[in-house]
Design goal:
Number of strands: 0
Shape: globular
Number of helices: 8
Distance between the termini: 14 Å
Oligomer: single chain
Number of domains: 1
Order of helices and strands: HHHHHHHH
Strand content: under 5%
Protein name: DUF4145 domain-containing protein
Low-confidence stretches: none
Largest sheet: none
Radius of gyration: 16 Å
Structural class: mainly alpha
Length: 172
């Protein structure tokens, strides 16, 4: 993954991912996926700084496998991140693909069972989709929530490895 220009802090990353409130499901999901990937890269770089150039070339699946292999993700977290990546691949490569409420709910439930719900985002998402027949009926705020909860968890891992709360380290 190439370096993200203009993202030097968690605040920058947060604003890039959720700063625009009129995002559709697709753009919210893609941005959330990219945010998660960015944090995984930063975790891997802190854990294995000599592998920075290699880490940045990995696709998302291999990056998840690497961070799991380094002992920073448990099996449920890995499973959730790979399921999200599968949905992202469908969104990116199948122009007519739109996840059903059930598909989306299943991913949110997986995430809820794998990551801490630090600001009740999983719960709010599940409440919002209850009784809806399509994602178009949902308030757009929920499309960011799953990724925010996951990013809070990954950001915590990053900090536990010695990363700064806001300013990302530079491995060049």
């Amino acid at each position: 993954m190439p370096r993200a220009k203009g993202i030097n802090s968690f605040t920058d990353l947060y604003e890039r991912a959720v700063g625009i409130r009129d995002n559709s499901f697709l753009s919210s999901f893609i941005l959330g996926h990219l945010m998660t990937e960015y944090l995984l890269v930063k975790i891997a770089e802190l854990k294995q700084p000599t592998l920075t150039k290699l880490i940045e070339t990995l696709n998302h699946e291999r990056l998840v496998e690497l961070v799991f292999g380094l002992g920073e993700l448990d099996e449920p977290m890995k499973e959730t991140l790979l399921a999200i990546n599968t949905m992202r691949n469908k969104l990116a490569h199948r122009i007519s693909y739109t996840p059903s409420i059930i598909e989306y709910k299943n991913i949110v439930l997986l995430a809820q069972n794998s990551f801490s719900d630090m600001t009740d985002g999983f719960m709010q998402t599940l409440e919002e989709i209850e009784g809806k027949s399509s994602l178009d009926e949902c308030d757009e705020f929920i499309f960011h929530e799953m990724f925010m909860q996951i990013s809070y968890n990954l950001h915590e891992l990053y900090i536990d490895l010695g990363g700064d709360w806001d300013i990302f380290h530079e491995n060049t």
